[in-house]
Give the backbone structure.
Amino acid sequence: MGGCTIFKLGYCLPLSAIVLFALQHSSALALPQLAGIEFSIQPRLCVLSEQEERCEDELEIRWTAGEPRALCLYRSDKQLPLRCWENELSGSHRFSLSAAANVTFSLREVDQNLLLASAEFEVVRDEPRYRRKRRNPWSFF
Amino acid sequence: MKRITTPIALAALLSLAPLTWASDSAKPAAGQAVDDAYCTEDTPACRKVGSWDVSLALGIGTRTNPVIGRDDQTLILLPQFSWYGEKFFVENYELGYTLLDTPRQMLNLIGTMDLDAFFFRDSLSIGNFTLEGGQDLVNDGSSIPGNGQDGGDNTDTDAETAVSTGTQVDPKSLDKRRTAALAGIEYSHYLGNWMLNAQLLSDISGVHNGQELRLGASYDFAIEKNHFSVFGGLEWQSRALLDYYYGTNSNEVNNASLLFEAKADTATVVKFAWHRQLSKAWSLSASVRYKRFGSSTSDSPLLEDNKVITAFIGGVYHF
């Protein structure tokens, strides 16, 4: 398993500030969703350490609608849909994700290819931080 | 014992350096005021949080020893290491915790060792990194050698000469001088290429219960790829500290004229350093440090010289 998702903060607490910031950022990126459609992905964020290149995680995507719909789930880096539903009120899809960058998931209506909802899975890199070195002029060298 | 007798000329030369290159003050230089954006991987004045920085200098140098009967130290290898966390840091034999770090100011709690003890050590001492073989930083109950009190064991000497004329201290009869652990606060103020530094330290190991106040200023400048640093400062040390290291008691000397009780005194320190980065891993470095004891301390019969000169030049490999 690579990366550190929002469900595994126990071992990546120092990154919590980044996580919180990214979560806020993530929410802001979510497109306005049509009335009656609820769309969610979990987890929504993965924080990569300096040594990790890709985030490997299990994702679960859920949607519910107020009336039966024919929908397909897409991810931004693939052309073919991940899964489609015919005349369903809700659906869920669980799968393994390997991603080095942000991935956007979207729900589209089968007939008109109309975008109904989307959400982003964010990949954040834990960039190394630098601080000023203390200078001790009293040392021998 | 070897002696170097040209420190005054050197100090005078160094004191002119800031004026000579003052016109370079507008150029970026190592150690000048930094802000967050300034601290990157390639900034010499900054360190990556959470990682070790280890280097080994290979070259030639010396550290004179002013204590009677003690040899100067030849410097060949200088290992150095540091680790910086968000607040905590380790630098060779020093520990610290940063209370304040702004582009212009830095306030640290620091723990360090008493450098005066180095002159009484037989241990493996490699530059700033000193391996204190078998030495205890905590007072084990042995008495303070000054002021005529009873001394501890008469060991810890590799004196090449043992003088027993009655007019000079026999190095073999000296009590052990332990290394004190000092702790205190340090404030640095960055003003362009200048840095003002103050350290107030106190013995926390119960070795001598003395204090030390250091006040100094350094000026950094760069000429092309060469980075220079000139530093001058005053080092006030309390009576208890100086008497522990440089005082004598009746167990150590057999002549009343050799009894010496030190007073609080101020030493002068001047340092000049040069650094040139050759590649990411290699750099060239040189430094000369001159310390002159205060006039009162210089009268100690344990000192056959009133100055200490540390000089080194060599290549540095950064791991």
About this structure: The CA atoms of residues 70 and 159 of chain B lie 6 Å apart. Residues 1-36, 126-164 of chain B have pLDDT under 50 and may be disordered. The radius of gyration of chain B is 20 Å.
